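ENTRY TYPE: paired fold submission
RECORD: A
CONTENT: sequence, then structure tokens
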Amino acid sequence: MNWIDPTRQKFILLALVAVHALAFLSFYPEIITVSDEMSYVLQTRLLAEGTNEEIVLDPFTGKYVHTGRKTLYPLGTALFALPFFKAGGWQFVFWMPFLALLAALWATANWLKEEGRGPLFAAVLLAYPHTIIYSRLCMSEMPSLLLVSTGLLCFWRGLDRNRVIYWLAAGFVAGLSILVREGNALLFAPFFLGALLRRDAKWWILLLSGIAGVGARLVAHALYLDDALYMRPPLAFGLDYIAANIGFYTGVLTLLVPGGLFLGLLYRGRRRPEIIGAIATFFVFHLLYSFSGEQSGVLKSLVIGPRFFIALLPLLAFAMAESGPRLWAAAKSKWAAGSGQLDSLGRRILWAWLGAVAVGVFAVHVGHHSWAAGRVEIRDAIYAHTPDGAIVVNDMRASGKFFDAIYGNRISLSRHWIDLKKAATLIRRNGSLFIVQLDRNESPFWQQVTRENDDYLASYRPPPHLVLDRRFSDTERLRIWEVTHVP
């Protein structure tokens, strides 16, 4: 299966990276598109300001008040984004995930090369469309991918040389990875446990440096969040979710990573139990996780759910680089008479796949940029039809991501909290308020939210003045009302 020599493999991988870079630069992100992403950028902004809370105007009293701690996630992603935020503001933070992916590709390709495998298998990272999407978002996926690929590269290097140095680095990176996302530890634990059970020389270095990495998280959270043990409350876990997840996630890791899950589990190279154990543990862990993104509709759920496996890709690529060629060689030996035809077919499939990866990478950038352009229009319409300092009542599940100090001065309040009595108080004190309703219909969940918002609006008498009614797509409609009469 050595159809392309290693030197050419490097150039092909670099060509794919060049396509990715060109598309990223040509269609540079212009807006924060995901609510979770807004939370990360807010955390980064507050970190740059040296605080973990905001000072905001209380529209009920006219006084400035402290919001209290405003953070949802571990601090690591914000720390990764901080230098970019300081260099160029929120518009510059998108460079963080882009560069993190490039570094992860370098680490994965070198891990493959040093084990005598084809570095082109690192293209699996680019072939997975979710990698490209989340390389455009300031979220935890790309920092996780970087830490996992770098940590495993250091662990593997420590097997053969400079063990003290590389295992110090591997352990610290593994421990530090939970500063970005706690689940990252699952991808390191089998290797560290294996070193202990095999009684590898200096295994304790991994333990001590891992503790140091975990300690870095505790210190960071103690200093910034005033809570060393802070952890975001997880969504539900349980056996009940396996049936809903197993078919979908198996299909994703078999089709988008060609044969990836099965080829990964068929690995027979060095540290076989650890490799298979890490893949299986990480996969099963997410089968038990309740989050699937189904509330956002079928198309968006295809993007949201499988993102959790981005950090698994370096391990899958490494395992596939051993099992794929071995199984291909076994097939050729079984059908010796047709081995030449098999090789010819394999080459065609490989080149077709590489071509599809290049086209897919560019297309994902274009597609995401086109979709994000609609978010830009919605944001701009909201700010164009509400004055500076306006009180905006909205369903924050749908439109909360459009309200932040980085965009402008609006006081965003949840319609779940603002009843008619509170609305009357706000109008008497401030003269008016605005109701912003972003209707979505791509799923039963959002259709129900729209009905609830309509019921809320209907409770205002006399009816508010309609300022804007505009459809941005078949699934999104923005309406804005100004309320000047006390309901």
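RECORD: B
CONTENT: sequence, then structure tokens
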Amino acid sequence: MTKHPLVQKEWKTSRWVMLIFTLIYGTYAVLFNNSITYNKERYLFSDGSSSNFMHELYAISMTMLPLTLIGIIILVILLFSHERNLKVGKFMGSLPFNKKIQFKIKYIMGMVTFTLPFLLFAITMIFIRIQNNSWLTRLYEYAPAGGMLVKQESLGSLLIWLGIIWLIMMAVYSFLILVQTLMGQNIIAGIIGAIIYMVPWFLIYAVPATIYLITGRWCEKDVWDSILFFFQGVPRTNIEPVIDLGKQTLFREWNHVRVYDYHNLGLNLGILIVVIIISSMLAYRFILDNDVEKNGDIVMYTWFGKILISGISLCSALLLPLIVVVFSQVENSILTIALMITGGIIGYVISKRSIEITQKHG
């Protein structure tokens, strides 16, 4: 570890979070290896209609990724815990290091905090895959469409999955850093950033549901579902028929295969990369303009406060009718519109008042 004082400062802040990431990834690596070892015999006598190694990985990502993202939220909150203290912020501003250097070191140290443990996890997964290569290859040797399954179980598929998970973490991390540069309270910024990250999931289901409550017509959302599956680190599963069974096999009655498919892989990867680049560039730009005197305010910039109020009002307008419908089981278009207006007003008043209070006393 370098003796640079800023690196030492960030290391003291992030080292315990790195330990948490290491424990999370280490636990999942052990559980995964044990699962593969325990189920090996069952896999060898299965009908060969689906991949097994990658299926286990996709299953653990459903819980591992959310835990990792919670860790990233905590990490980003801690990274800005000193700067958002008014006295400490003024002291940091008096040091012989400009904001550019401070931000670059903070961003890199935060990235290293979760990337190094994940890199160790990735190496472990690759080792486990190579260690089990012989029986995985033999498993699909006599299966119809075995070539397709071997491809899905390949080292390339594993590397793609690992790359996607890391890019998702980087995108969330960069976005949360951006939110921190726009707000003067690090804990609230972490919570708001996490909520904003979940907003697309909410809108994908809330908007069609609200339209249905008002018009009685349901909007298709298959395309959005594919994107949402991707950003959970999981490909969509299709059960596809095998038209030509080819040679005689041990699976003569077998006529379908479970296919994992990342729909629009290039587009989704591009979205992640763009989010990383734009978020980090904007965060770098905004941190230079942060006014230390505004530490303690919910928002550092008036225009962001307006965006925040508008977003909270919109989500409140969509949320209240859905809550009422769930508990009352009453579907009425006029009631839905009235509840939307009420929810929007409640969200607007609460968010606006909260920002004003901190601006007066922050």
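NOTES ON RECORD B: Residues 5-44 form the longest helix (40 residues). The chain has twelve helices and two strands.
STATUS: closed
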